[in-house]
Give the backbone structure.
Amino acid sequence: MKYVVVSGGVISGIGKGVLASSTGLLLKTLGLRVTSIKIDPYLNIDAGTMSPLEHGECFVLDDGGEVDLDLGNYERYLGISLTRDHNITTGKIYSSVIEKERKGDYLGKTVQVVPHITNAIQEWIERVSRIPVDNSGVEPDVCIIELGGTVGDIESAPFVEALRQFQFRVGHENFALIHVSLVPVIHGEQKTKPTQAAIKDLRSLGLMPDMIGCRCSTLLEKPTIDKIAMFCHVGPEQVLAIHDVSSTYHVPLLLKEQKMVQYLSKRLKLDDLNVSPQMAAKGADLYGKWSSLTTQHDRSFEKVTIAIVGKYTHLHDSYLSVIKSLEHSAMRCTKRLEIVWVESTDLEPESEATNKANFHSAWQSVCKADGILVPGGFGSRGIEGMISAAKWARENKVPYLGVCLGLQIAVIEFARNVLGIKGASSEEFQPEITKDKAAVVYMPEIDKEKMGGTMRLGLRPTVFQSNTEEAVIRKLYVCW
């Protein structure tokens, strides 16, 4: 097993997830089987109970795991299906160690961060990296590990130490590290000091970067690359210039141009791996399709406008999978996508508490859109605004897509305005609602007290009956 670790310095949200996904994609073009692991240093067991406005989207896996949004990126770029264990959190690690201690597995030893926590992290990585993630049932060849947060953070320390030990555990030829750093542009000059400081911190913790991914708003200049190489103890070919591009789908092409694949192949001796001619051909075909996709996207000129009516629109990462789905659909239709963000509370009837300018601006966006999408969410805030948007779409024959909460909204709107059930709503918003007005009810397995991982989540079989009404639903489902 070959391991490629992607870490970050200077600031968080620098693009480690896209770089990790792009690296995995390029390795797949060699015909290799690639898997991914995301390490999140927070104490939460999973992302299921975290506010989207604080953490971004909670991505749900086939097995029902509620995980970090970066795992969605991995699945989209690599065409794989991950498990909840592919997202490691501090909470998960400590829970597993404490459970072992309670059972006496440590035979009375004093349980400490080193070696017990760090060993648990390494064992978790080794175990999960070998889980098949495609329909072949074959173990992966390469595992991309993204270390969340910023190196130097207190909460990241056990994971950094675990990875320091891990490089010796698996051997030099099986472990490579890519460190992503920021190169800010101040008064027109590209500054290298933040990157120098970040690499210094990394090396002081016992990790040496094999490649440095430099994020910059502009194309990295050669003197900047040479300076980073000299002061960070790497060759110029090990400095990856990753400037802002029109689409994140260009990043794999950008990395390939800088011969990342050749460097990693030599560094990890990937040529020694046994890649079948069929897998090699499949990898070459993958790269051809990806290049064609990005070129086609750049040449799309006909615009389509979609209004996303949500309640967490102040942080667009709250709806990352929705955005990516729309992007993929637009690419397939050779359209240029324009997303208009509408905060659902701004659509609610005018009152003294309503900002009139926001109200009129929001309704203008909804009325001008080619399609309306209402995504998932929790709680009663903004619900009436969503219902109003669904009503507009139905009455004006504007394409409407409701995802999770958005579909419940469509049901409530139909019950109120077509079936004539006044006050129709959901048990989630109005626990005291009577049965004759409950358009949406709780599923029997829902735990109304405990929030973490208690909903119906993940991939599930759908069984259709043969009667007439079910046949219509089945036809709609199969078409979708």
